[in-house]
Amino acid sequence: TFVVVDIETTGLCFDADEIIEIGAVKMVNNKIVDRFNTFIKPKKSVPTNIINLTGITNDMLKSAPPIEKALPSFMKFLGDGIFVAHNAQFDSGFIRRDALKQKIPFNNKILDTLALSRIIFHKLKNHRLNTLAKELNIKMGSHHRAVDDANTDALILKELLKRVRDAGIDNLSRINDIYRLQKGVSNLNSFHATVLVKNDTGMRNLYKLVSIAHLNHFYRHPRIPKSLLRKNREGLLIGSGCQAGELFQSLLQYGSQEKIERLLDFYDYLEIQPLHNNAFLIDNENVSGMDRLKELNRKIYYLGKEANKPVIATGDVHFINPEDEIYRKILLAGQGYKDADMQPALYLRTTEEMLEEFSYLGEADAYEVVVTNTNRIADMIEWVEPIPSGTYPPHIEGAEEDIKRMSEEKVRELYGDNPPEIVRKRVEKELNSIIKNGFSVMYIIAQKLVRKSLSDGYLVGSRGSVGSSFVAYLIGITEVNSLPAHYRCGKCKYSEFFDKDANVGCGFDLPDKNCPVCNEPLIKDGYDIPFETFLGF
Q1: Strand ranges for 465-530 from DSSP E
Q2: Per-residue model confidence as pLDDT tens digits over 219-247
Q3: Which member of 86, 144, 217, 486 is catalytic?
Q4: Which of 176-190, 302-316, 425-439 has the highest mean pLDDT?
Q5: CA distances (Å), 317 to each of 191, 284, 332, 374, 438, in order?
Q6: In sequence order, what are the residues at sequence separation of 6 or more whose Cβ sits closer than 8 angstroms to the Cβ of residue 224?
Q7: Whole-model pTM?
Q8: Is 144 part of the annotated catalytic residue set?
Q9: Interstrand relation of 82-85 and 110-112 (parallel, antiparallel or unpaired)
Q10: How far is CA 95 from the centre of its chain?
Q11: Checking phi first, is residue 398 left (phi over 0); if not, alpha (psi -120 to 50) or beta?
Q12: Would you tell me how many other CB atoms lie within 10 Å of the CB of residue 473?
C-alpha cells in the first residue's frame, strides 16, 4: 500500500510555518483506491506569496479544522502504508513535526519520487512535478493544490514502479538497487561531510576516493557515494560536516529517529559551527531565528553525548583574516552568485573567539567542544606526508643504457664516427647529468610517447625548455637541435662550427653553402640554446 501525499504550507520554515492543506491518494497493488483531502486552519494568516502560489486564501481556511483534529484523521488514512511524496523529506518533515507535538507515532517507510525519478529519468534537466507530468503525458489539475498534486504524483509513481519492474526489481526492499543498475552518473542530491586522514592507509584511501569521485561520479562536482566511502574508510575519520551535512539537514527537517540513529552510527565525530555561519538560513526563511540555530547545535551536542561520539566546534574556515572576505566575495560574484555580498564571516577564529561563539552551551560544554574534543581528534592523526620527501622516478630496466646507445648512434648518423669536440663534450655533459640525476627514465618515457604518436600519424614534438637538451634531440623527443649554429653534410658527415665572435644566432640564418669535401648542399642547423636552462642543471 502506497499513500502518495502532498502538503501546502505557509512557508518553508520547519519550526515556524504551518500546514494549511493535506492531500493524499491511496494506492493498493498499483490501483488508486481512496483519496484524502483537508484544509487546515493555521494560527497565523497565510502570507500573500503563498496565496498567490497556491490560490488558498484565509477565507477558505476559516472553517477548516485545526492541525490537532486534521492530523489524526490523516494518520488514520495513512495507516501502515508507505508514505510517498515528491521531495518527501519536506512533506514527511512537517507531518513528523506535528505528529511529535501530538505524540502520534509516525514510523512509516518513506519513498521519494523525486529521488527515484532522478535515477530513472536521469537525462531530464529537472525533475519538478510539472516537468515529469509533461514528460509522461499526465494531466495535472491545479498545480500547488495538495490533492491534485498528490494525484499527479501517484500517476508518476505508477510509471516509476513500472520502470523499476522492467529493470528486474520486483521487491520493494531492493528499490535502492536501481541506483546500481543505472549506467553513468546519478544526479541525486548530495551532502557535505569532512574526511580526515589518520595515517598512510587513510591517505591512500582518500586519494583513491578523490580519483573515483572525479572519474566515475562527477555531476556538477565530484561526488563520493556513501557505499564507496564505507568500503574505503579504513584510516579515515568522517565528520558530519556543516549545515549542508546529512545530520544537520535531517534535524532541520525533522528526520525520523531511525534515520538519525543510522547517521550517528556512520560518523566518527559530529560538528557544530558558529551561529553566524548559518544565519543565511534565517534570511532564506528556513529557520525562524538564532534560537532555533542554538537549539539545533544543542541537539547535535546531546546526540553526540548519547552516542559517545565527540562533538567538535569547527569554523568552516574559507579565509584567514576577517578582512580577507573581500576576495571570496569577488570570486563568488564572478561565478554569478547574486548574494556574493551577503557572506558569513568564515575566517579563522581564535580559541577565545570560538569559546565566545559557543558560550550558550555553558562554560564547561563550550570548552569541551572548542578545546578538549578538537585536540582529541588531532591526537588521532598520525604523522603523514601528503607528498613524500625525496624523488620517486619510475623505473624502466636498461633506461640508462638505452639513452646512451640511442644518443651515440644518432651522433654518428649526423656527425660521423669522429664528431667535433663541441658535439662530443655536449653529449657527455648532458648524459652524465641525466643519468647521474636519475632522469634517464623520464627521457625514455618521453621518447616512447613521441615515437608512438608519430607512428600513429600524429605530429608531436617537445619544445620550450626541452629544446635546450641536445640529447632530447638525438633520441627524437624534440626537433630542436640546441647546438650552436653550424653547417653539416648529410653525405660525408663534414661539419663546420663558428667562433663566438662570428655572431651567428641561428643556423637557419646561415647563407647557402656546398660541402667543401663532397660538394653536396650543406644542412644549416643549430639554435644555440644552453642546456643549463633544462631540469635545473
Answers
A1: 486-488, 495-497, 523-525
A2: 888 999 898 999 999 999 999 999 999 99
A3: 144
A4: 302-316
A5: 18, 22, 16, 15, 41
A6: 209, 212, 213, 217
A7: 0.76
A8: yes
A9: parallel
A10: 32
A11: left
A12: 24
